[in-house]
Amino acid sequence: MKRDLDLIRKILLSIEDAPGGYAPELKFDGYTDSQIGYHAYLIIDAGLAVGSDVSTMGQDSPEGMITNLNWAGHEFAEAARDDTRWKKAMNIVKDKSGSVTMDVLKELLTSLMKAAIGLP
């Protein structure tokens, strides 16, 4: 299964928007439970959230259960929150390279955020 940056963004924003700080039940139109579970696993593995590996041998892919975001997850969510900035970043990625790492994407989003508020 390929990593889906749009799904990762949806998951992080959904958790950040949840009252109380705990992750809600994650359901998104157009995505299977398996896709969501795998991306939750990736988010935990990337150090953007706190959670557990709840994979079992009979599953199609690894699965994570997120309990809450950590500081890095909140930072990424804030950088990715604005739809216009997100689309601009993803268009830059598509035009320049076609793919991007999370670290580079966060730098790009942060750079666009800084430019929007007049910082060098």
Describe the structure.
The chain is mainly α. The chain folds into two domains: 5-70, no CATH class; 82-116. The chain is built from five helices and two strands, in the order H-H-E-E-H-H-H. A two-stranded antiparallel sheet has the order 1-2. Helix 1 (5-17) crosses helix 2 (33-45), helix 1 (5-17) packs across helix 3 (71-80) and helix 4 (83-96) packs across helix 5 (102-116). The radius of gyration is 15 Å and the shape is globular. It starts with a helix and ends with a helix. 25% of the residues are buried.
Which parts are unreliable, with pLDDT below 50 for 5 consecutive residues or more? none
Distance between the termini: 38 Å
Query: Helices and strands: which structural class?
Result: mainly alpha
Helical content stands at 40-55%
Secondary-structure element string: HHEEHHH
Briefly, what is this?
The protein is mainly alpha-helical and 120 residues long.
Q: What's the structural blueprint in terms of helices and strands?
A:
Elements: H1 5-17, H2 33-45, E1 49-53, E2 64-69, H3 71-80, H4 83-96, H5 102-116
Antiparallel strand pairs: 1-2
